[in-house]
């Protein structure tokens, strides 16, 4: 998806969390070692024309290629995604679930990309759709993008 973002004009949004900072360690509460719930997220600089938001969380350090932890779309425009929320329509992650599943690296420290998209329209996607289906549906509808990267290593 990154190559497509470079080809279009979009606004940069800021996504942050009170649980961890950019490139900092994600607390175990938000990982498979803990409660395995999504962290709270704060969003700034959402384009005024945004109709909804979408979130993709993935781990590009996974041994078999990028591992998808969360796919969610048609999130009402908001500046806060609460902890342990189901803010929009849930897609299927690589654990085979329709929800957030947190960091769970087999070994070493992995990087987790919380990618936020502001879209110009609601998406007509079936609940349980994959990251790939979401990326295809978002093409041509992205008004804004922001990314928060956290790290995690099992104890």
UniProtKB/TrEMBL annotation:
Keywords: Protein kinase inhibitor
One Pfam assignment: PBP
MF terms in GO: protein kinase inhibitor activity
Top-rank lineage group of the source organism: Bacteria
Tagged with keyword Transmembrane: no
CDD domains xrefs: PEBP_bact_arch (cd00865)
InterPro entries membership: PEBP (IPR008914), PEBP-like_sf (IPR036610), YbhB_YbcL/LppC-like (IPR005247)
Keyword Manganese assigned: no
Gene3D superfamilies: PEBP-like (3.90.280.10)
UniProt cross-references to NCBIfam families, sorted A to Z: YbhB/YbcL family Raf kinase inhibitor-like protein
Name by which UniProt lists this protein: Kinase inhibitor
Organism: Flavihumibacter stibioxidans
């Amino acid at each position: 998806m990154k190559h497509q973002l470079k080809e279009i004009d979009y606004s940069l949004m800021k996504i942050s969390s009170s649980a961890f900072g950019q490139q900092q360690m994600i607390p175990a509460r938000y990982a498979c070692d803990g409660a395995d719930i999504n962290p709270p997220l704060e969003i700034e600089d959402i384009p005024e024309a945004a109709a909804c938001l979408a979130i993709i969380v993935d781990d590009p350090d996974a041994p078999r290629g990028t591992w998808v932890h969360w796919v969610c779309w048609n999130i009402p425009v908001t500046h806060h995604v609460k902890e342990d929320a189901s803010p929009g329509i849930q897609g299927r992650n690589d654990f085979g679930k329709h929800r957030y599943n947190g960091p769970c690296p087999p070994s070493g420290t992995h990087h987790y990309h919380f990618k936020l998209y502001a879209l110009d329209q609601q998406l007509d996607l079936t609940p349980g759709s994959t990251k790939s289906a979401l990326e295809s549906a978002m093409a041509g509808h992205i008004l804004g993008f922001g990314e928060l990267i956290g790290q995690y290593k099992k104890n």
